Here is the input.
Amino acid sequence: MNLLAAVPLPPFNFKASSAQDVFSIAQMVVCGALFLVAFRELRRGNGPIMLWCLIGGFIACLWEPIVDVLGQCWLPTRGQHWEAFTLLGRHVPLMMPFVYSWFVGGQAYLFYRLFERGITRQRLFQLWGLVFLVNICLETPGILTNVYTYYGKQPFDIWGFPLWWGFVNPLMPMIAATMIFKLKPHLSALPLAIATIMIVPSADGVANAFAAWPVIAALNTDVGYVGTWIAAFITLGLAAFVVWIIGLVVAVPDPAHATATGLGSPALDPAQTAMPARTVAHA
Here is the structure.
């Protein structure tokens, strides 16, 4: 069996519409606004983590041509006005680094702050679903206006956006936020900055390697729609498993559940919790 013969070719004749300019400017505006918020956070003494996350999101864009080849997304060269870089023969438009900056980096910071405040496993799954909807809202306008397209035997493809990507993409900021949240207490300023900037793009690769591989394998072999749809359900299960694992690391008990099951911490008498006075020895 010739596996390469089963890999569909990109639609080279597909031409990007002029809507790419509007789409690109919109992403730049969103990203620019978040950078302003990051600098405001810095001035207010809330730390530079948001800024590091946004920078890391820019770097994460290097994954775009890799997942495009594997997951069969085509960013057309015909009609493309602004190009950011070329990798693996794929010409990545200028809008993509800005998309990655806010979608991966910006949302990683949002999850990080939510983890700091305390989040239950139920709320974590709800937020996974919310970012799934954000992903749909992000990609649908570009697809319907022919800014880019998907090809091959894509599962869960109803109107041009294969929804299986929506299972995987929210994992990127969630994994990044989890790592930043757990590492922050152990790192000083400079190591934390370097770690955060590197974690965000690395989380992109982890999410795709852990959850997207079944569909990627099916798309690039001759298994037809039956095979890709089966793979998509496996990917859905793996993505949910990742969210569950993240919950093990960052989730706090649901107060209502803890009270109902008697797992809440018993109230302590103030005298029991008072710290003993520190004895100072004098020479």
Remarks:
- The chain has eleven helices and four strands.
- The first strand starts at residue 73 and ends at 74.
- Residues 13-254 form one domain.
